[in-house]
């Protein structure tokens, strides 16, 4: 079965949308057993501009810590690049506002996807959005 980028993107999105640590654990196990996809999720929050670099850093650290990527420059760069792509997709909505949510990261072979779920807050007028980035590494 060809896994490809679609199942890796699906895994990253589902991880970012998970509601609890227990659900994350179930999804991680399911993706690993069914598709040999490694996945992880991590929370974040803060003002968008000051949080952007921290979001990328949290994605790389979580991916390394959970064994989704190896401790090599190419893997770290792929996660960082995919996270920045996801951030760029949301930037017009979030600029200058507070954001919070979850980052989902998934990998199978040379496919890496990062999905970021955003809750974007302005007083009580909240908005939600998802950004998705993908990279291929050899």
UniProtKB/TrEMBL annotation:
Q: Which UniProt keywords apply?
A: Activator, RNA-binding, Transcription, Transcription regulation
Q: Per its record, what are the GO molecular function terms?
A: RNA binding
Pfam families noted in UniProt: HutP
Q: Which Gene3D superfamilies match?
A: Hut operon regulatory protein HutP (3.40.1510.10)
- Keyword RNA-binding (UniProt): yes
Carries keyword Transmembrane?
no
Please give the function described in this protein's UniProt entry: Antiterminator that binds to cis-acting regulatory sequences on the mRNA in the presence of histidine, thereby suppressing transcription termination and activating the hut operon for histidine utilization.
Q: Which family does it belong to?
A: Belongs to the HutP family.
Protein name, per record:
Hut operon positive regulatory protein
